[in-house]
Design goal:
- The protein has 580 residues and is mainly β.
- It has one domain.
- Helix content is 4%, strand content 52%.
- The chain contains 5 helices and 31 strands.
- The strands form 6 sheets. Strands 20, 21, 22, 23, 24, 25, 26, 27, 28, 29, 30 and 31 form a 12-stranded antiparallel β-sheet that branches. Strands 11, 12, 14, 17 and 19 form a 5-stranded antiparallel β-sheet that branches. The chain has a 4-stranded antiparallel β-sheet with strand order 1-10-3-6, with no helix packed on it.
- Strand 28 and strand 29 form a beta hairpin.
- The longest helix has 5 residues.
- The radius of gyration is 24 Å and the shape is globular.
């Protein structure tokens, strides 16, 4: 039976999860299983090549946020936090850790978001289980910049919306369990106290969780009532694609979406940041792919880049510090250009104040950032009967400069942010919804950000340069075989690259280079009713490399075949030790 255009359109990239229905196993008295600290050869548990967060030399105080918390509905789970009395601060570092388990059975990947004082302390997605696999994994992140919220008692929220029950005649019974904790490392002569913001302001939806953005005009907003001595400001942003936007990198212009069996609004998305409704910054959208994305066997046991732990993008709003110092309320907003039902967005505003002056004045000197990008679309699609072949491309180029100043206790300080934000996508199509000929859709996409921030005045002049690159290539084909069965073949190459450097008084003080790449390939076989009958040729690798001017180095590669981990090479010394 040939799938209809409606069911085989953009759904062809998401229905696999729904069709991936395996015999269920009930969970009785389940609890979190702590994943091993080192990758286990032969295991199907989720594992990434990312390094653990570097720890200071001191012994930490550990505050448990919650243990064995069950997620089997869409209710937010509240928890309480009290600062560690044995480690009152100052702290050299604060590390968030969490362990997750999903009971064996049938379940979708789910968004996981934890908040403390309504500020986001963790955001990621969960792994999908199987009938014979109850996946367990560990995540951790450096949350030292959120130190202000850790100094007082707080209420926290853990949100992993997870349906357990029967829907459409299908039973979903994978229950998610989680532990979470904070590690507080006291400062010492070896590891001095961290320089942290003075204020953290959460920017979320009206319910305190990530806000929903259905269209370009939608925003999450937060009214700011800041002190009058703001000196530096940053916004850490996460914009997560969901629903019709989950595979936004495969979307096309609305006028050909139906013919090409794809979602609309083109393959271009961009996060826009405003202050009082005026353009203030831009954040690229990372093309995360979840463990149920396209083909679940692509990501077992190695998920895509950052799938289990999203990294926020930092927008430098320091040129607006003088505006925020005027004693009046101001509103920061976050939206996604071309959002097409829908994106989730969350952010934390990090505020540094002048400790030597209670009132700082200043203002904006220049802002050339336009309110919206102007993407250029190219279409070369040829129709032959019910078949459509050709290419669709979209590009966007943004170059802007924002300058501002503040009159601080250490003099006039000017900050200039210059950025070049470029996006390109090219897709190749060979689709025909009315025959058993192959449906092919290949996408090559690249987002780059070249950023330079110059600070002049005060005690020094400085320059920070950052060069981001988010390449992703996806090749997808679905073939109807002569016996009525179907074969889906997919390959993905997904990367995250960041090169950064810092100059102080024209001296190159620091530089670093980070790259993370996941490559995955698999072939899924279906019967005539689109039930999965097997997977062949499953191969996944993930490589994480980092080095900096202090001599710190990390280089690890994980390899998996047939859904189990087969090799681990490298480590913190950038060596090539293999564990097979």
């Amino acid at each position: 039976m040939r799938m209809t255009a409606n069911s085989l359109g953009m759904r062809r990239l998401t229905w696999v999860t729904a069709a991936f229905l395996l015999a269920s196993v009930s969970a009785v008295g389940a609890q979190v299983v702590i994943a091993p600290s080192t990758p286990q050869i032969g295991s199907s548990n989720p594992v990434t090549a990312e390094p653990p967060v570097p720890r200071p030399h001191t012994k930490p105080c550990v505050v448990q946020l919650f243990q064995n918390l069950e997620f089997a509905d869409f209710n937010t789970k509240a928890f309480s936090y009290t600062p560690p009395t044995a480690c009152p601060g100052p702290w050299a570092k604060v590390v968030f850790t969490a362990d997750f388990t999903v009971t064996a059975g049938r379940q979708f990947d789910r968004t996981a978001a934890f908040y403390l004082g309504h500020a986001s302390i963790y955001y990621g997605t969960t792994a999908e289980p199987r009938a014979t696999l109850s996946p367990s994994w560990h995540v951790e992140r450096d949350v030292t910049d959120l130190t202000p919220i850790f100094k007082a008692d707080q209420t926290g929220e853990a949100n992993i919306g997870n349906f357990v029950g029967v829907s459409g005649g299908v039973t979903y019974n994978g229950i998610i369990y989680a532990n979470a904790a904070l590690e507080f490392y006291p400062a010492s002569w070896q590891d001095g106290p961290a320089v942290t913001p003075d204020i953290v302001v959460p920017v979320n939806g009206t319910g305190g969780d990530a806000g929903t953005l259905n269209t370009t005009s939608d925003q999450i907003t937060q009214v700011l009532n800041l002190p009058m001595n703001v000196e530096r400001v940053y916004l850490d942003v996460i914009a997560q694609s969901q629903s019709s936007d989950e595979f936004w990198m495969f979307c096309v212009p609305n006028d050909v979406a139906g013919e090409l069996l794809s979602c609309g609004n083109t393959a271009f998305r961009e996060t826009e940041v405003t202050i009082d409704g005026k353009p203030a910054g831009v954040a690229p959208v990372y093309p995360w792919i979840y463990t149920g994305g396209i083909d679940p066997y692509l990501w077992e046991p190695i998920p895509g880049v950052q799938t289990l732990d999203f990294k926020p993008y930092r927008v430098d709003l320091t040129p607006f510090a003088g505006v925020l110092d005027d004693g009046n309320p101001h509103t920061v907003g976050v939206g996604v250009f071309n959002a097409n039902s829908y994106f989730l967005a969350t952010a934390n505003l990090l505020v540094y104040t002048d400790h030597g002056k209670q009132k700082v004045t200043g203002g904006i000197l220049q802002n050339t950032l336009t309110a919206a990008p102007n993407p250029v679309v190219s279409q070369n699609i040829t129709a032959s009967g019910s078949a459509y072949t050709g290419t669709v491309g979209v590009t966007s180029k943004r170059n802007f400069q924002i300058s501002g100043y503040v009159m601080t206790s250490h003099g006039r300080v000017e900050t200039t942010v210059q950025q070049s934000v470029n996006f390109s996508s090219m897709q190749e199509f060979d689709v025909n919804p009315n025959t058993d000929s192959p449906d092919i859709q290949n996408a090559q996409q690249l987002t780059t950000v070249d950023s330079e921030t110059n600070t002049r005045g005060g005690y020094y002049s400085g320059k920070v340069e950052k060069h981001f690159a988010y390449p992703i290539n996806i090749n997808y084909s679905l073939v109807g075989n002569s016996d009525g069965t179907y074969t889906q073949t997919t390959s993905v190459d997904q990367q995250y690259r960041l090169k950064s450097s810092q100059e102080v008084n024209r001296y190159r003080a620091y530089e670093s280079n980070v790259s993370n790449e996941a490559k995955a390939a698999d072939t899924l076989n279906f019967d005539a009713n689109f039930n999965v009958t097997g997977s062949t040729g499953s191969m996944t690798t993930q490589t994480y490399r980092s080095h900096d001017s202090f001599g710190r180095c990390y280089n690890r590669t994980l390899t998996a075949a047939n859904h189990v981990l087969t090799n681990v090479s490298g480590g913190q010394d950038c060596g090539s030790h293999d564990h097979r």
